[in-house]
Amino acid sequence: xxxxTKAQSASIANALNAxxxxxxxxASKLAVQRETFEKEELARSNKALYAILTKVHTLFNxxxxxxxxxxxxxxxxxxxxxxxxxxxxxxxxxxVFVRFVFNSDRKxxxxxxxxxxxxxxxxxxxxxxxxxxxxxxxxxECKKQYKMSEDRKKRIEAVANAGVEVIDMLKMMPAxxxxxxxxxxxDFKDGAEFAFIVARSIGKGAFxxxxxxxxxxxxxxxxxxxxxxxxxxxxAEKAATEMKNNKVKDTTDKAVKSMTAKSAAKMTMKELEAx
Length: 275
Prior knowledge:
Strand order of the largest sheet: 1-4
Largest sheet: 2 strands, parallel
Radius of gyration: 29 Å
Shape: elongated
Structural class: mainly alpha
Number of strands: 4
Number of helices: 10
Helix content: 55-70%
């Protein structure tokens, strides 16, 4: 690892401080521009809004490129605190930039930050930001699509994790029944471990087994495991909801039996009606 002299370290620190100051100064100018935008442009045209968001995007990229994003975000957070704007420790740095410039409430800051995050996720450059937002039918739609995308990512990850558990369960699960199909043989390819039987459902949980699929592939297995994983998650969520509802009902029942004016005042209509 390279070692720096005191003079070199001081020079690096000064350069970093200069970068931090430069970004903060530019962000402060944007904040003034934002005030003008809100006070003078009563219509709050999308064009003006997108222009400011483009500059926020550019400024954020600059702080990242100059390796002072941590210091800038910290400085912005401290200044927001002085303005009376509380920023949680788990707030994304990009949202801090948005709140610093717009001095807005959480919901509005979330909408703007989600729009910028969606653009960054798709590799959109600042110069193309306005076209990107317009192509998504505005900030609100941009935010909705980004949130849906995040939820979908989490769902895909959950299914993938559950799929690993499903395969382990299938390997250890005792057979319901052992059957023999005439003239049936299965060729396993691509590392597939399970065979697949075509069955006809006749209702009430009964099936007529027809034929074995002659070739079992990893793709076929993956598709089947994915559906089992989805069902696994659904059953787990259903059980968790039932457990939570039972727990709430038990707590409500106990509260009703020992109800006082003080406890009743804190109960919701829903809790009273369910009791």
